[in-house]
């Protein structure tokens, strides 16, 4: 499709921002639900082969203009993140953190989410703030880089960010901290180890905008190992959410009445007993239901007269 013109780099033939626009257009996907985008883009391969790299525009003082949407932002929007490593071969100025003009997403966010630990490291070495706080008032919807790395289980990136001073207590637009997003896997284990090693304060029962603590969220999603971890670190099992529901309400409501799967409840109560904690079993929610009454009501909805 493309023919390399001798050894001349393409920036001598086409203006840089035109290349920028062509790259952005090449990575966008068709709205057709049946369209399956390719795993690579010939234009990206061609531009890399020419040796072309992006040269930022500058203001009157010679400072880079970072408020600029690039193909890297577009591949994130189109869920074609697998193209990011190649695009960073073109956008290789890691002291310039381009920011999407529409939502505030930066190249650094994209690198953290994709798990490009070598790129993240280069950004940090050149002075990038690991928290990458929004610079514009309308860009608060962008999650902190640490959140993105945790959600995608990017172990190396999480470690780089934490050891570079990322704040684990920053909240996103839903009030969630990194503790609401950490998982029970190796990434989660490493997260807590680094937090302890660096003596980083970490409020264990912080609430998001729905009133959920990390422990309540772990119970809602059945994260058994995480439940044990959070209880071991002092999370209060008796806290209620905005509806007055405690963890025991959630455990009772989430159990499958047909399977009678008691594993989650057993792990929870075993952890409570091992730590010598006291569980309030008859606390009532805002509808005046105890956990047992919540379970009975759940049974009626699920099984009708069989319960």
UniProtKB/TrEMBL annotation:
Reply yes or no: does the keyword Protein biosynthesis apply: no
Note the segments forming the ANK repeats: 141-173, 210-242
- Alphabetical UniProt keywords: ANK repeat, Repeat
Pfam families xref list: Ank_2
Give the matching InterPro entries: Ankyrin_rpt, Ankyrin_rpt-contain_sf
The protein depicted here goes by the name Uncharacterized protein
Organism placement in taxonomy: Eukaryota, Metazoa, Ecdysozoa, Arthropoda, Hexapoda
């Amino acid at each position: 499709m493309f023919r390399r013109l001798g050894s001349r780099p393409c920036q001598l033939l086409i203006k840089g921002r035109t290349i920028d626009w062509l790259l952005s257009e090449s990575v966008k996907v068709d709205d057709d639900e049946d369209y399956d985008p390719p795993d690579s883009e010939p234009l990206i391969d061609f531009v890399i082969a020419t040796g072309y790299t992006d040269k930022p525009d500058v203001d009157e003082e010679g400072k880079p203009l970072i408020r600029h949407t690039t193909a890297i932002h577009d591949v994130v929007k189109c869920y074609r993140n697998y193209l990011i490593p190649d695009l960073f071969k073109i956008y290789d100025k890691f002291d310039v953190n381009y920011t999407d003009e529409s939502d505030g997403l930066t190249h650094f966010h994209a690198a953290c989410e994709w798990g490009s630990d070598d790129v993240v490291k280069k950004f940090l070495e050149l002075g990038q703030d690991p928290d990458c706080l929004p610079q514009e008032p309308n860009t608060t919807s962008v999650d902190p880089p640490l959140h993105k790395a945790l959600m995608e289980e990017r172990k190396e990136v999480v470690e780089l960010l934490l050891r570079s001073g990322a704040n684990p207590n920053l909240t996103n637009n839903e009030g969630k901290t990194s503790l609401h997003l950490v998982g029970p896997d190796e990434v989660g284990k490493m997260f807590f180890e680094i937090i302890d090693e660096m003596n980083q304060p970490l409020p264990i029962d912080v609430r998001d905008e729905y009133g959920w603590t990390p422990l309540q969220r772990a119970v809602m999603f059945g994260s058994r190992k995480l439940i044990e971890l959070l209880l071991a670190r002092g999370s209060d099992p008796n806290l209620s959410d905005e509806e007055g529901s405690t963890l025991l309400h959630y455990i009772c409501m989430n159990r499958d009445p047909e399977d009678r799967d008691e594993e989650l409840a057993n792990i929870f109560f075993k952890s409570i007993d091992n730590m010598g904690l006291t569980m309030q079993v008859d606390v009532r929610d805002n509808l005046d239901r105890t956990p047992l009454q919540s379970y009975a009501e759940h049974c009626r909805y699920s099984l009708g007269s069989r319960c």
